[in-house]
Structure formats: structure tokens, C-alpha cells
């Protein structure tokens, strides 16, 4: 038998199991993610994220959703990766360049007087707005596009922040009061709709004001989560495209708030910047068969 150390962390309620995979790593990460993410028989999480060596950046983030599917990017997760890397000295740099499946992202840590991490700002890069690149089954920008969900027309705006997002604007708080099972039924309909060839995350957005958006999210591969960083970024971009928000706004999720800016000019023009927390929940160990670990 062997033991594997992990740290459970959360950003805006989006919780993952973090594994430092610089010496050994899981032989089958998708299977381990399904096992550990179970909230009744495992540790409980939205998936696992591994901190791995990188040849092109300070380190590499490797992510798996709760259902074992590979995730390209997680805005809340990458802030936690940066905090853990800082605290483990792997390396102790600020800002930090982190390789992801959708490119290298820069994370600037916010430190207190004792150099403890109080939060982080992530340069999420430029939003992808061309339909086939998101991807969706249509060309051009998908802004105010209609699809049928449960026999009803829904107006959507599609954005990719390294993973596909379907943003739906609502006029009241009905969606926020739906029981979990009813929300899940709607979320699955969007996730698996044929308009989204690689499935999609779906954000339901109530515009409280031009600088305040309220959001409930369904994530592909994980189900409903308390927070989705890339989703919050996509929501602001969609709101700007629809003319109902400024380029700098607070996105309120069930797990907390994120500050999102879609920069118009100057340094980082057209990039989306996200600021939020990165909190440790606890450290632990899981017992595995020796064959379940391999050299990194």
C-alpha cells in the first residue's frame, strides 16, 4: 500500500483536491477523481487538480472534473494552485506563470504584511467569441441566439474562456430558488444540447445593476457548483456584448463574489482579469494500492 498527500482548497466555494505531482502521480487520474470527488464515499470535491512540472512555465496545472473528464481550465482552481505553489516554494514567485491546457496564465498573488496569501488576480486571456472555436454548431458570434430547451426557446450568448460557456440572462430570481433536482434537470439539458459538440457550462445571470451580476451555474462534468471562475468571466463578457454591464463588475455566486474586468485598452487590452479568494480547507492522505501511483 502507499499513501498520497493532498490539500483540499476552495475558491468562491469551488472546491478541489490538490495533489503535488512533482515526484509521483496517480496512474489513472480520471478514476481517482471520480473516487475522491464523491461527497458520500470519498473526500468530496468538484474534481482533482495536480501541480506538475512544466518545461514552458513555472508549473503546470492538470485538472479533472468530478466525473473524471479532463478540464482545460478553472479560474477558481488556478488561484488555489498559485497559493499552494507559493506556500510550498515550488517556486515561491509572484506573479506566477502557470501552464494549463488552454495556454499559460499569469497569477498575481495578493499578500498581507506577513506574506500570507489573501487572494489572487488571474489574467485569463482573451475571450473566444467565434462560434466554431468555442465550440458551438454555428459560425460567427453567438449573441442573443435562440435554442430549444425542454420545448421552450432560450436566448443564449456563447463565450469560451478556454472552456465553452452558455450564458442565459434571466429577468427575475426564479432560477435561484429552484430546488437542486429541478435545476439539475435544466442544467443537463443545456450541457448535452447538440448545439454544443463538446458539452457546455451554463451560467444563469440576473443583472442587478451594470456593475453587479448574480449567477447560478451548471458545470459540465461536475454538475452545479457554488462558483465557476471561467463562468463568471464569460458572464461579464456576455453582459458587455448584450449592452447590460460595464467592463468591470462584481459577479455574485452562491459561494462568494468575484471581481471581473474585461480590459478595454492599455496593457492587457481585451484580456479578462479575475480577482478572488483562495482558501485552504484541510490537508489529508488517501491510501492507495502501490500500482495506483507512478513516477512523475
Summarize the structure.
By secondary structure, this protein is an alpha+beta fold. The chain is built from 5 helices and 20 strands.
Descriptive notes:
It is a single chain. With 296 residues, the protein is an alpha+beta fold. It is 18% helix and 44% strand. The chain has 5 helices and 20 strands. The chain has an 18-stranded mixed β-sheet that branches. It has a two-stranded antiparallel ribbon with strand order 3-20. Strand 13 and strand 14 (212-219) form a beta hairpin. The protein starts with a strand and ends with a strand. The mean pLDDT is 96.
Helices and strands: which structural class? alpha+beta
Order of helices and strands: EEEHEEEHEEEEEEHHEEEHEEEEE
Ends apart, CA distance between termini: 18 Å
Instruction: Tell me the domain tally.
Output: 2
Question: Strand fraction band?
Answer: 35-45%
Largest sheet: 18 strands, mixed
CATH architecture of the largest domain: Roll
Outline type: globular
Within the CATH hierarchy, at the fold level, what is the topology of the largest domain? Diaminopimelate Epimerase, Chain A, domain 1
Work out the number of β strands.
20
**Superfamily (CATH H level) name of the largest domain:** Diaminopimelate Epimerase, Chain A, domain 1
List low-confidence stretches.
none
Describe the protein's topology:
Layout: E1 2-11, E2 14-20, E3 24-26, H1 29-37, E4 47-52, E5 59-65, E6 70-71, H2 75-88, E7 96-100, E8 103-111, E9 117-123, E10 143-149, E11 152-160, E12 164-170, H3 174-177, H4 180-191, E13 201-209, E14 212-219, E15 223-225, H5 229-241, E16 248-253, E17 256-262, E18 272-276, E19 279-288, E20 293-295
Parallel strand pairs: 2-4, 5-7, 12-13, 14-16
Antiparallel strand pairs: 1-2, 1-19, 3-20, 4-5, 5-6, 7-8, 8-9, 9-18, 10-11, 11-12, 13-14, 14-15, 16-17, 17-18
Amino acid at each position: 500500500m502507499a499513501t498520497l498527500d493532498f490539500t483540499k482548497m476552495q475558491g468562491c466555494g469551488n472546491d478541489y483536491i490538490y495533489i503535488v505531482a512533482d515526484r509521483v502521480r496517480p496512474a489513472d487520474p480520471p478514476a481517482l477523481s471520480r473516487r475522491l470527488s464523491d461527497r458520500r464515499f470519498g473526500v468530496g470535491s468538484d474534481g482533482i487538480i495536480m501541480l506538475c512540472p512544466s518545461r514552458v512555465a513555472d508549473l503546470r496545472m492538470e485538472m479533472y472534473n468530478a466525473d473524471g473528464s479532463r478540464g482545460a481550465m478553472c479560474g477558481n482552481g488556478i488561484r488555489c494552485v498559485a497559493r499552494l505553489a507559493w506556500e510550498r516554494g515550488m517556486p515561491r514567485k509572484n506573479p506566477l506563470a502557470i501552464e494549463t491546457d488552454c495556454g499559460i496564465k499569469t497569477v498575481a498573488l495578493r499578500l498581507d504584511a506577513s506574506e500570507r496569501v489573501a487572494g489572487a488576480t488571474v489574467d485569463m486571456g482573451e475571450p473566444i467569441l467565434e462560434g466554431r472555436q468555442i465550440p458551438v454548431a454555428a459560425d460567427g458570434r453567438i449573441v442573443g441566439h435562440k435554442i430549444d430547451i425542454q420545448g421552450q426557446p432560450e436566448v443564449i450568448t456563447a463565450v469560451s474562456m478556454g472552456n465553452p460557456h452558455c450564458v442565459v440572462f434571466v429577468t427575475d430570481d426564479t432560477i435561484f430558488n429552484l430546488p437542486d433536482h429541478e435545476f439539475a434537470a435544466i442544467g443537463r439539458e443545456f450541457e448535452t444540447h447538440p448545439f454544443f459538440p463538446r458539452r457546455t457550462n451554463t451560467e444563469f445571470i440576473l443583472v442587478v445593476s451594470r456593475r453587479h451580476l448574480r449567477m447560478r451555474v451548471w458545470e459540465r462534468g461536475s454538475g452545479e457548483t457554488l462558483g465557476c471562475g471561467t463562468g463568471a468571466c464569460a458572464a461579464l463578457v456576455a453582459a458587455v456584448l448584450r449592452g447590460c454591464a460595464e467592463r468591470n463588475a462584481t459577479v455574485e455566486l452562491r459561494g462568494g463574489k468575484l471581481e471581473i474586468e474585461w480590459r478595454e485598452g492599455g496593457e492587457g487590452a481585451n484580456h479578462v482579469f479575475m480577482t478572488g479568494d483562495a482558501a485552504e480547507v484541510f490537508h489529508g492522505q488517501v491510501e492507495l494500492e502501490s500500482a495506483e501511483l507512478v513516477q512523475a
